[in-house]
């Protein structure tokens, strides 16, 4: 196993840069999608079957959407993207390290 | 493709939670011996990339938009077992932190997007990669997302909330994702190429997933 730290690996640094670019793009894509109206095939199927009103919001989640509250739509989306990406990265490395420890 | 709470009958939601738990437990047992320090870091990067990529809603002329799901991408980059686990982590964060996809429906969403898409997408990729790697990646992404949509539509079409409209639900969801899935396939190829350009291919070799 390498004794180098993650920051020493160039691929990690480049990957983090790529993740940062995607986070920065999130508000732009959210704005563009809002311009055309966001509708997935599942939503279309629910509308067609008259099931759309059956959906209920999950009340156990910490947030109710990807935009952090109180920051406005664009900054809130940027904050949500940053939070979610960093959290997933941290949980992913932590989970994988735990899994490796158990092997 | 995130099923919210209220669509599925509770017994179905519970059954898929148990089913997904069993499959992911087996995946974890099979994959853990391959987790070197390099692959631990790669697992985190791929999971984070899938999360971030799912936030990018691509506007499509005609009044809709779609986003990359990434099950096949994760499976190709990490191998199918770790790929499924990575997407399962993403779907769980989305549900429990951001409220995207129901908490009760979490098992069904993990089943569709993490398990079905990752394993089906990887199987298609593996069957074609010797002929053409780009074609294998596009096909893996495309077939994987369509299979995931088919799985979700079977769950929804047999749910009471959808009134037994199985055929119409399958037609709308599978038809829609079969078209949008071409974008998923192309983004699977682009995502893998971008990941490779970070220098992953110069890292530690692994028996499955990203090759070095």
Report on the architecture of this protein.
The complex is a heterodimer of chains A (103) and B (212). Chain A is an all-alpha fold and 103 residues long. Chain A has one domain (3-51, 67-102). Chain A is built from 3 helices and no strands. Chain A has helices at 10-36, 41-49, 73-102. Chain A starts with 9 loop residues before the first helix and ends with a helix. By secondary structure, chain B is mainly alpha-helical. Chain B has a two-stranded antiparallel ribbon with strand order 1-2.
Produce the secondary structure layout.
The complex is a heterodimer of chains A (103) and B (212).
Chain A lengths: L9 H27 L4 H9 L23 H30 L1
Chain B lengths: L9 H22 L5 H18 L2 E4 L3 E4 L3 H8 L1 H19 L7 H23 L4 H25 L8 H32 L15
Antiparallel strand pairs in B: 1-2
Rounded to the nearest angstrom, the radius of gyration of chain A is: 19 Å
Please mark out the parts of chain B with pLDDT under 50 across 5 or more consecutive residues, or reply none. Answer: 202-207
Low-confidence stretches of chain A: none
Q: Level of helix content of chain A?
A: 55-70%
Q: How many helices of chain B in DSSP terms? A: 7
Shape of chain B: globular
Number of strands of chain A: 0
Name the average pLDDT of chain A: 84
Count of alpha and pi helical runs of chain A: 3
Mean pLDDT of chain B: 88
Helix content of chain B: 55-70%
What structural class results from the helix and strand content of chain B? mainly alpha
Order the strands across the largest sheet of chain B as they lie in space. Answer: 1-2
For the secondary structure, the number of strands of chain B is 2
From the structure provided, what is the oligomeric state, counting identical versus distinct chains? heterodimer
Over all CA atoms, what is the radius of gyration of chain B? 17 Å
Structural class of chain A: mainly alpha
């Amino acid at each position: 196993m390498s004794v180098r730290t993650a920051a020493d690996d160039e691929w990690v640094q480049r990957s983090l840069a790529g993740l940062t670019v995607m986070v920065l793009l999130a508000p732009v894509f959210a704005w563009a999608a809002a311009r055309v109206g966001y509708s997935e095939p599942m939503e279309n199927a629910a509308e067609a079957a008259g099931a759309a009103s059956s959906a209920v919001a999950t009340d156990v989640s910490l947030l109710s959407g990807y935009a952090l509250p109180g920051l406005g739509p664009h900054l809130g989306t940027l904050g949500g993207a940053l939070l979610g990406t960093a959290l997933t990265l941290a949980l992913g490395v932590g989970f994988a390290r735990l899994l490796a420890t158990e092997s | 493709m995130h099923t919210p709470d209220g669509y599925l009958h509770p017994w179905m939601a519970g059954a898929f939670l148990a089913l997904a738990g069993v499959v992911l437990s087996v995946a974890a047992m099979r994959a853990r011996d391959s987790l070197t320090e390099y692959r631990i870091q790669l697992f985190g990067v791929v999971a984070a990339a899938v999360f971030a990529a799912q936030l990018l809603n691509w506007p499509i002329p005609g009044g809709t938009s779609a986003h990359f799901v990434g099950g096949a991408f994760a499976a190709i980059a990490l191998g199918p077992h770790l790929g499924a686990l990575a997407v399962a982590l993403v779907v769980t964060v989305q549900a429990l932190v951001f409220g995207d996809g129901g908490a009760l429906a979490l098992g069904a969403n993990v089943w569709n997007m993490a398990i079905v898409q990752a394993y089906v997408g990887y199987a298609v990729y593996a069957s074609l990669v010797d002929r053409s790697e780009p074609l294998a990646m596009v096909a893996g992404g495309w077939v994987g997302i369509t299979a995931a949509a088919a799985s979700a539509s079977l769950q929804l079409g047999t749910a009471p909330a959808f009134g037994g409209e199985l055929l119409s639900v399958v037609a709308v969801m599978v038809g829609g994702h079969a078209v949008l899935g071409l974008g998923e396939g192309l983004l699977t190829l682009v995502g893998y190429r971008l990941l490779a350009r970070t220098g992953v291919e110069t890292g530690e070799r692994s028996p499955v997933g990203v090759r070095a």
